[in-house]
Amino acid sequence: MANPTIAIVGRPNVGKSTLFNRIAGERISIVEDTPGVTRDRIYAVGEWLGREFSIIDTGGIDLGDEPFMEQIKYQAEIAMDEADVIIMVASGREGITDADELVARMLQRSTKPVILAINKVDNPEMRADIYDFYALGLGDPYPVSGSHGIGLGDVLDEAVKHFKSEQEEEDEGVIKFSLIGRPNVGKSSLINAILGEDRVIVSNIAGTTRDAIDTSFTSDTGQEFLMIDTAGMRKRGKVYESTEKYSVMRAMRAIDRSDVVLMVLNAEEGIREYDKRIAGFAHEAGKGILIVVNKWDTVEKDTNTMKEFEDEIRKEFKYLDYAPIIFVSAKTKQRLNKLPEMIEQISMNQNLRVSSSVLNDIIMDAIAINPTPTDKGKRLKIFYATQVAVKPPTFVVFVNEEELMHFSYNRFLENQIRRAFPFEGTPIHIIPRRRK
Ligand code: GDP
Ligand code: GDP
User: Fold this and answer.
1) What is the pLDDT of residues 271-317, one digit of tens each?
2) Does residue 334 line the site of ligand 2, with CB under 6 A?
3) How far is the CA of 18 from the centre of ligand 1 (A)?
4) Which of 128, 185, 222, 369 is the most buried (most CB within 10 A)?
5) What are the sequence ranges of the domains in the chain?
6) 29 annotated ligand binder
7) ipTM metric
């Protein structure tokens, strides 16, 4: 099931993004050459008391030309639409403003639980001032300091209380996937075409609190799939639905819930910044990735066209060299029948476990071809490697000193492992660890 979702709302400058960053912490990024997906974040996964949750900074969803008060209003609406629990932030330094009152009035009407955090209460003497905030009509104000990291525990304790009890484990063997891409690349057409191909649609499953609709179906081979609902599938006509930040946030949430992500590109338009951000996020999250180039029917082709397209994609998504590319047309249905089996194959590769003995043979052979690097007269020594996880396949390599494992050598080992085992479509992580 989807993680419970917390949304942070409030007028500008009260410290929303500071609190967001505190709560989200740093998502561990193992691969360093990914473009700045963690920069400028509005969506992240956090954890408190062992419960994982998604968190959205609605203040980061700017709505272009909308007037100030309208922006704040839409951000509050997004929170009410998307979240299970809302944290409204105000500032203990500046006191209550008109904008705070506007947000509070909207949230009072919401059925979602709201926690009122009064930020910038940096020292205990300031705590006396927070009682004014009872006037917002949102219950007890919680004093916090984003910059000093004070008081957040109490706010999160309260938030977790409102999470629904954990859903039962999902069905083993069901492959969850989503189609991600910019508006108009053909996601809905592909979805309809995939579902139309004489497969049995088992059910439409309503999302936890939102109106997201996931669809489950069984392929010809008997494999069960769950297609995760994605932004852009339904066009509800709300102002913010067409903004890029909102759509990126929705896409990230869908990716978090997926085993395999179908990154849909439009053959007519090529690759855009949006595509790179989303693909980078899926890569960092360790998801299986299939690159789907749609509208292939619209391209005038000669013998090299497909190759040129592939080269372009490889150039733009350097770190996705493991992701297969398929050229399809939702219109003519060209190659659509291949999609389920490709998704299934990628999912298998994500779950692949390799034996330690074979793995270590591969690593020793690799070292023989390309000796380990040295730094300041010291050579990296690799003692032993073992696979510690699947989804994505993760390998711990025991070494003399972690710092000696340079990125380029890590990459070399990855390539050698990929040559030996079928990890097509899945990122793999190689983590150096000092042998105790
Ligand atoms: P947002 O617009 O609501 O996302 O606010 P920001 O997180 O960008 O913070 C606005 C300003 O308030 C920045 O200059 C922050 O450094 C400052 N700020 C954030 N949290 C605190 C805090 O706990 N104490 C103090 N004194 N300043 C803070
Ligand atoms: P979405 O916004 O990504 O869900 O895109 P849609 O599925 O709504 O498609 C956008 C437009 O592209 C519609 O007019 C579709 O008919 C058209 N379209 C989708 N797939 C194809 C395709 O494979 N070939 C052609 N020629 N048009 C397509």
Assistant:
1) 888 888 889 999 999 999 999 999 999 999 888 999 999 999 999 99
2) no
3) 6
4) 185
5) 5-161, 175-350, 356-434
6) no
7) 0.83
Nearest CA to ligand 2 atom 10: 184
Report the predicted TM-score, pTM, of the whole model to 2 decimal places. 0.82
Tens digit of pLDDT for each residue in 184-216? 898 888 988 888 754 444 444 443 333 456 788
Closest-CA residue, ligand 2 atom 19, reads 186
Q: Is 10 among the annotated ligand-binding positions?
A: yes
| Encoded amino acid at 187, one letter | K
Answer yes or no: is the C-beta of 329 below 6 A from any ligand 2 atom.
yes
- In ligand 2, the atom with minimum distance to the C-alpha of 183 is 2
The domain defined by 5-161 folds into Rossmann fold (3.40.50)
Edge-to-edge strand list for the sheet holding 175-180: 200-206, 213-218, 224-227, 175-180, 260-266, 288-294, 325-327
**Closest ligand 2 atom to 179 CA:** 3
140: helix, strand or coil: coil
151-182 confidence digits (pLDDT tens):
999 999 999 999 976 654 456 789 999 999 88
Classify domain 356-434 at the CATH superfamily level: K homology (KH) domain (3.30.300.20)
Residue nearest to atom 24 of ligand 2 (CA): 295
Six token digits for residue 176 = 């969850």
Question: Given 3.40.47.10, 3.40.1080.10, 3.40.50.1820, 3.40.50.300, which CATH number is that of 175-350?
Answer: 3.40.50.300
In ligand 2, the atom with minimum distance to the C-alpha of 185 is 3
Q: Is 256 annotated as a binding residue?
A: no
Q: Cβ(22) to ligand 1 under 6 A?
A: no
Q: In Å, what is the CA distance from 126 to each residue of 11, 31, 118, 132, 157?
A: 21, 43, 11, 12, 22
How many Å apart are CA 1 and CA 4, to the nearest integer?
Answer: 9
Atom of ligand 1 nearest to the CA of 146: 23
